Amino acid sequence: MSLTHFDASGQAHMVDVSGKDVTAREAVAEGCVMMSNEALNLAQGGAAKGDVTGVARLAGIMAAKRTSDLIPLCHPLPISKVSLDLVPDPALPGLRVSATVRTTGQTGVEMEALTAVSVACLTIYDMLKAVEKSMVITNIRLRSKSGGKSGDYEAGE
């Protein structure tokens, strides 16, 4: 299998998607921010900087819309939906972050979903770092994608 972001001479390039069909596409990504119970309580109840999960949700949405500005070979896409779920998980302890991104186009939105999760996790860290600098951002991955030539994908456990 060859890498699509390199041409025949090995030079980086943006993939030409002009010949691809326009299809409905969706990607779901996930990640976690592990933290102490004290930090988790602040994340749920409001920290000094404000509503942690609300701000992180907005940061993730904004990041998804700016993915092509951050990742050099990503296409700018007309995103039709970005949603983030931030769920406290006392078993970690921490927050589980999930992003769903949709578009109708010629290329997928996996990078947009992964970027949304990454920036939401970084925002959580930023807002809580005064209480705990040892938080761990972990397990960021693509959980599923649908649409396009390569078909559907579902991550295993």
Structural summary, described in words:
The two termini are about 25 Å apart. Helix 2 (about 50-65) runs antiparallel to helix 4 (about 110-130). A hairpin with a 6-residue loop joins strand 4 and strand 5. This protein has a five-stranded antiparallel sheet with strand order 2-3-1-4-5. The chain has helices at about 35-45, 50-65, 65-70, 110-130, and strands at about 25-35, 80-90, 95-105, 135-145, 155. It has four helices and five strands, in the order E-H-H-H-E-E-H-E-E. It is of the alpha+beta class and about 160 residues long.
Strand content: 25-35%
Largest sheet composition? 5 strands, antiparallel
Q: For the largest sheet, list the strands in their spatial order.
A: 2-3-1-4-5
Distance between the termini: 25 Å
Report the total helices.
Answer: 4
Low-pLDDT residue spans: none
**SSE pattern:** EHHHEEHEE
- CA radius of gyration: 17 Å
Instruction: Label the structural class.
Output: alpha+beta
Range of helix content: 25-40%
Overall outline: elongated
The total beta strand count reads: 5
Query: Kindly state the mean pLDDT as a whole number?
Result: 91
Chain-wise SSE layout:
Elements: E1 23-34, H1 37-45, H2 52-65, H3 67-70, E2 79-89, E3 94-105, H4 110-128, E4 136-146, E5 153-154
Antiparallel strand pairs: 1-3, 1-4, 2-3, 4-5
Helix pairs in contact: 2-4
